Amino acid sequence: TVSVVLFTSDLRLHDHPPLRAAVKSADEVVPLFVLDPGIQAAGFDAPNRRAFLADCLADLDAGLAERGGRLVLRSGRTAEEVCKVVAETGASTVHTAAGVSGYAGRREEELRRELDGQGCRLEVHDAVITAVPPGAVVPAGSDHFAVFTPYFRRWAQEHLRTAYGAPRRVTVPDNVGSYRLPPRQDVEGVAPGLAEGGETAARKQFLTWKRRGLAGYADHHDDLPGDDTSKLSPYLHFGALSPVELVHRARDHGGAGAEAFVRQLCWRDFHHQVLAARTAVSRDDYRPHGDAWRTEEDAAEEIEAWKQGRTGYPVVDAAMRQLRHEGWMHNRGRLLAASFLAKTLYVDWRIGARHFLEQLVDGDIANNQLNWQWVAGTGTDTRPNRVLNPVVQGKRFDPDGAYVRRWVPELADLRGSAVHEPWRLEGLDREQYDYPEPIVALSEGLARFKHARGKE
Ligand code: FAD
């Protein structure tokens, strides 16, 4: 018998329920990945993620080769390509992970319908992309949790399945053709400091960080200059690491750092269960804002300054430049940069979210859109009017200014926290820095936001 395993956002061999089920039940397995032009058409094929994906696929192929197999790569509409592979191999079952987004839902429906027509079974596996499947814990009278804390309480009590090892052997039929894997070097416009993708790099990153950063994570994860967070988000986005395995490993380690880390993994599941229940929130406000945001036309110059990291607010600019350089940004930086765009500049969160999706290697519909909405006050935040002041926040989370000096070299010789307020310098001291004046007075921006809120 032959089974097909359709990989999507789960590019790994460890703790992979669809692959495990296929290897256990069939003599031969076709590990398949389809490069679907639908993803390109939807605008999700950004250079940083394409390069990272290339690493993930190459590493998956190498891992399968070590086990006697290989990855089969096709290009085209997913359901159609899977059906072709089924027809070529006579496969009786296709295994895949349950998706979360509207796109993944439609893909699954199409696949089920078309495979049915071929007399082939589709087996969809839960708890592959998230630790707890969306919909597994719901409050009375609703299909999802809108508030994090009660969700976390229930989530933390859920029984998680065991984390599985990687299969020892994967036997792939000889006669299935595959495209050449696209190498990372072929991708243009990639951030110079982009991390290496793939399960091997993911496991190494986790082990290194577990030794170095996990114990101190509760105390230091908000420090901007420290690099104390795990930097696992791109690996989680592509599924090079299993969230179930990470929760187990963190719990086995124990301590306050591990607890805080598990809580962040729960935030990821939280946003996924909101998106699964309300797929339109990838575009529409979760809670309507009730007033027109400023658009590209209203604020073209300010938006461009924000994208370039030239707003005149050093910590915001540092964050935006980290994004440009690494295709990744510290969570505190994301909060500050997003709050500045949505609340201080009063620009539509969708404009910022789109820019993040173009740049972020971990750019993720659930996490990105819902975190943006959270910051903009249209999402699930229970304090939607909160506005982050970049000077106060800079001094708090980058007290010595090291993060700003790293990313804004124009200000590199300003000592200590003075780096957060270069406009305080006078005369010649001010002129010697080739750094813009603030593009908006904080009070002016906040007044716009508060005025709009007042109208609701
Ligand atoms: P750690 O602090 O080590 O946390 C571990 C893991 O928990 C992360 O890898 C991530 O998977 C998860 N996590 C942590 N914080 C959050 C959160 N607030 N929401 C959801 N999951 C979380 N994360 C993405 O993965 N993709 C995105 O596109 C994305 N866009 C964001 C946009 C904005 C405006 C904001 C404020 C946050 C966004 N986040 C996004 C969440 C968070 O900033 C990143 O997950 C985190 O910075 C990744 O770094 P890390 O892996 O070192 O995180």
Give structural attributes.
Deoxyribodipyrimidine photo-lyase, alpha/beta, 5 strands, five-stranded parallel beta sheet, EC 4.1.99.3, 6% strand, binds flavin-adenine dinucleotide, 48% helix, Rossmann fold, single chain, Serine Threonine Protein Phosphatase 5, Tetratricopeptide repeat, 456 residues, lyase, DNA Cyclobutane Dipyrimidine Photolyase, subunit A, domain 3
Draw up the topology in text:
Blueprint: E1 2-7, H1 17-25, E2 28-35, H2 37-41, H3 47-66, E3 72-75, H4 78-89, E4 93-97, H5 102-117, E5 121-125, H6 148-157, H7 199-212, H8 217-220, H9 233-238, H10 243-253, H11 256-277, H12 300-308, H13 314-326, H14 331-344, H15 349-359, H16 365-376, H17 390-397, H18 402-407, H19 427-431, H20 442-454
Parallel strand pairs: 1-2, 1-4, 2-3, 4-5
Helix pairs in contact: 4-5, 6-11, 10-11, 11-16, 13-14, 14-16, 15-16
The structure holds flavin-adenine dinucleotide.
Flavin-adenine dinucleotide is lined by residues 221, 229-233, 236-237, 261, 264-265, 267-268, 271, 331, 334-335, 338, 356, 360, 362-364, 367-368, 371-372, 375.
Secondary-structure class: alpha/beta
Order of helices and strands: EHEHHEHEHEHHHHHHHHHHHHHHH
Shape: globular
Low-pLDDT parts are none
In round numbers, the mean pLDDT is 94
Task: Count the DSSP helices.
Answer: 20
Spatial strand order of the main sheet: 3-2-1-4-5
Query: What's the story with the biggest beta sheet?
Result: 5 strands, parallel
EC number: 4.1.99.3
Keywords: Lyase
Protein name: Deoxyribodipyrimidine photo-lyase
Organism: Streptomyces achmelvichensis
